[in-house]
Each structure stands twice: as structure tokens, then as C-alpha cells.
Amino acid sequence: MLVISTADPEAEAYRGYCLEAVAARYNVVLITPAAPTWEREFITDFEIADPDDAQALAAAGQALAERHELTGVATWTEWYLVPTARLARRLGLPTNSPEVMEAARNKASARTLYAHHGVPSAASMTAHSLLEAALAAETIGYPVVLKPAARAGSIGVIRVNSAEELPGGFQFATAGARDGIESTKVLVEEYLDGPEVSVECVTHRGHTTAVAVTRKTLGAPPFFEEIAHSVDAGDPLLDQVAPVAAAAIKALGITDGVSHVEMRLVDGHPRLIEVNARIGGDMIGHLVQLTTGVDLARAAADTACGQAPDLTRTTHSAAAIRLLYPKTSGTLTHCHLDADFAARTPWLDRVTFQRAAGDAVTLPPAGDMFSARAGFLITTGPTAETAQARAEEALGHLTLAVEPQPSASPA
């Protein structure tokens, strides 16, 4: 089994559970942009290559194929979905086509496919300039959402309530779109007013199973930073949103793999935001396993190898994650959880800090989730309400203090 992974220093915290789960079933070989560190105990071989470099990736994949009998190739990194599909095709391994992955990555292309297949989605228009954005906003009607066409993690996504706010919003979205791989365009979209959820799905040979619903909590507007999630195995919403998630996956042409399908409930009805053709971030796959027993990382590997995934539910509970953000940008002075509290709370699944005292943290609009987040904590319980209440209790024993950035002196 070949895995294509990022060398991001935070990968162990957020994707370590994925590699561990896959290694429990398969002999794993890895392609990564830098020499493996924590990954070494889970892999049998590796090649160093930048997955964004098509020739280097192909050479690395061929080298591993010559040393090992590869059965499949997978990634849980958003930016590598298209290169992974291209490599799998080159090596003759099972895969969704690169064209399908390109459509999933490009939100403008995806919106067109949703409309063609009758999937309830948001009105959307592409804007190449501020003038086009203004015309689109007037056509769609304020408030609107501006977003990069091919980014992730809410980078560059902003709500604009009026024409007066549009220039600043367009500048913010354009800055976020600059690093887009498949597209650097900006979209102007209808604002879907309602609670946000995601549906965690597994597709095998064209049949999609909705495994769980993730309920989301967002930070302060106009940004869309996700600050908390909860998963409840008994969530009655699953039956309502599952058909829309499956229809969206089918519209894109995805036949195999794990998908993280985001939507909002507008007047109680699901409306699609986007389909991410990989395991959800922010430890959502771990929450799903805690609450249902279904291992999404293992399912991703199985489907990548052409095998039927095991989606048997073996437990029935709930879990919640709080993503730790400071109240202001600046320098962290304290970042810790009371050790006595952690020792006496078995429902505290884990606490992970990705920053330490002395590190700088920068919130939007100057920063994003990669520059602002300090870590996360996960709690469990019989229901989502209990898990969320326990997360709130844990926050009361956590210290996250920041020395604010000094204001610029007047010239």
C-alpha cells in the first residue's frame, strides 16, 4: 500500500492515527517531501519527492513499484488528490480518474456538476476582478460568501454583507486563492444561512454509505474558522442528509474512497457547500471511530486497493473536539492543561498542543488556521451534549495566554 503524505510538522498530530490504522492492515510505503521521522515505525520503505512535482512523484512511485508489489495508492492530504490519482493511473492501480479529482478540487467545476445533476447547492459565480465580483454579488444578493476556487481549511473564505465590504473581502479571498493549485480564481456565492454539518461517507464501486454526521461550530464572522465539532452515532440527522451527500458524490463521478461532504441546513433542508474527496480534517475520522467503531482510514486504504471496506458499527456513543485558538494574535506565554484534572477524567480522550510558550499566533484576517491554532482536545460521552459539556469543563482547566502584538507606533 502506497501512501502519499505531507511533511507538515503538524501531520503527526492530525493524521498520525490514519497512518497507524493503515499500517495495522497493510505494509505501507511512503512518498513524502522530506525524510520521515515519526512515520518510520509505520512504514517499510519510502521515497522523498515533492508530490506537486509530477516528474519527481512519478519517479518515486516507479522506484517503489520496482521494490514492492503495490496494491493501491492513497492520500489524506487535500492538495495531493489530483497527483495521487495521476500516479495511480500511471502505475495501473485502482483510482478515481484525475479528471474527477480535479472537479472535486475545483469548486467552480463542482458547482456546475451539482446544478446539472440537481444536487441542492449554493448559487455561485466566478469573479476575475472586483468589478465582476460586484456584479456577481448584485446578481446573487447580499450577503455573499467569497472564497478561493481551489483551497481548503476555510483559507480565504469570508462573508460580505454589503457593497461597502466587498473590496476588503475580495482582497482577502484573492490573497487566499494565490496558492491554489488547480485554480487561482475567486468565487462569489450565495450565503447559506443555517447550521453547518458534514457527512462522512465511504464509496465502493459507486455505492455510497453515509457513516456519520459531524455537527460544526464556527468562530466569529465574517470568517469561517471551525472551532469545534461533535459526532453522535445516534444523530437522527444522518438519514436526512445522507441522500444529498450521496448525490453530490455521484455528481462528481467519485466511485471509490472516503469523502467529507460539507453542507448547511437552510430552513431545515440540506444545501451543499462542497465535497472533499478524502477523510475530514480536525481529527474527524478519529471521532467517527470513537463513536461508531468504523475506521475511515482503513476504509480509505481498502477502497484504494479495490477491496470492500468493513463498515460494521461496533459501538454507539458520542465525541467532541475543541480546536484551541487564542482570543487575540500575539506571542503565547502559557499553553498547558492541568495535569491533575487530566489524570482523573477518563472521558478526556486526548489533548494535543501544536504550539508552545514563545510561539507567535496570528488570527484572521492577517492569519489563518495554520498560523492561529494552538492545538485541540477531544472528549467522549454517551451523547453529543455530554461530550460537548465535558469539553467545556476541560477548557476551564486549560490555560492559553497570549501577550498581544504591540500596536504600530504613529509615523
Q: Which features characterize this protein?
A:
411 residues; alpha+beta; Rossmann fold; Dna Ligase, domain 1; D-amino Acid Aminotransferase, Chain A, domain 1; 4 domains; eight-stranded antiparallel sheet; four-stranded parallel sheet; 13 helices; 19 strands
Total DSSP helices: 13
Q: Approximately what portion of the residues adopt beta-strand conformation?
A: 25-35%
- Net shape: globular
Question: How many beta-strand runs?
Answer: 19
Termini gap: 59 Å
- CATH architecture annotation of the largest domain: 2-Layer Sandwich
Oligomer class: single chain
Kindly give the count of domains: 4
What's the arrangement of secondary structure elements?
Elements: E1 2-4, H1 11-23, E2 29-32, E3 45-48, H2 54-67, E4 73-74, H3 81-91, H4 98-105, H5 107-116, E5 124-127, H6 130-140, E6 144-148, E7 158-160, H7 166-177, E8 186-190, E9 196-204, E10 207-218, E11 226-232, H8 238-252, E12 257-266, E13 269-276, H9 284-292, H10 296-304, E14 318-324, E15 330-337, H11 339-343, E16 348-353, E17 360-361, H12 369-372, E18 375-381, H13 384-395, E19 398-404
